[in-house]
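Quick entry, no commentary yet.
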Amino acid sequence: MQYAGVDEAGRGPLVGSVFAAAVILPEQYNLPHLNDSKKLSEKQRDALAILIKEQAIDYAIASANCEEILQLNILHATMLAMKRAIEMLSVTPDKILIDGNRIPENLSYQAEAIVGGDAKVPAISAASILAKTARDAQMYALHEQFPQYGFHQHKGYGTKSHLAAIEQYGIIAEHRRDFAPIKRWIEKNN
């Protein structure tokens, strides 16, 4: 049975898109230290992402942007990104295994949600790594445009330094307007 693992990255940050990836691994692969992306260093994730892309039968990475997050809310935007990644696969899996406790609506595949799947199912671990490295790449690109926010360090999360930068420089178009700290800044400054 050929299955695709699916996971997301970037639900919690205050800025940027939420990313999802779908990965179909072969029966035999060589991915040392494959694990949930949160349990790996950035260097390990970057190295594994290259190997996953080389060895996967198929993979896809998709996102939902901050406008979609605002329109749908973060949960539904995450489901949209997952559905996009699944639909972008060129190889048809027999089943989809999704990290977490929810399955995107109207999938044309048999699917199962697995809580903690990113640490239990290798294809979900691989998807978590591809989603996380794609999201990090977006943060590095934003850092190039807006170095004053320090996106390369906090990756868009609501750290003290990020909140201080928002106070000093305001918000950018990629900030998520429905997230509490951003909402408060908008209310205070309008």
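second:
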Amino acid sequence: MRIFAATALALMASATPALAQDATFQGPRVEVVGGWDRIETKGPDASGFVYGGAAGYDLQRGNIVVGVDGEITGTTTKKSSALAGVKGGRDFYAGARLGYVVAPSTLLYGKVGYDNSRVITTAGKARFADNVDGIRLGAGVERTFGHYYGKVEYRYTNAAQGVERHQVLAGLGYRF
């Protein structure tokens, strides 16, 4: 029994440096995201749930992290009345992020990039489906747990035709 305990202790001690090496923000990553979505238009505004996935690549040098990422999301955001309505559709994003490691496994970051959203508006019986282009700005915090990580992020999108979007999301991901 003592030999088993000593062997287990030796294995745990040798695994600890490997876990510390995994606390990095470098390499390719994939994630799922979900959270609150608010679309503001010249007409009605609406809130709902946003969901989707993202992929990216980060490069870490010291405490500085620079990366690129892309994302595809959908939304349940919808509001309508007899006079007007708005409904969110799919959303494509491509951009870059810049972060700073504030603790061995915690990253604070900002992001900026191109966004293309599908927004459907109605006025009476008329229906307009538009792909609106815009700029997304965001900020978040990411915490790594070995190869896995979790994040919380706020982002604002200023798009064409007076469409603005506010989102607060949580994400779970895996870094290769």
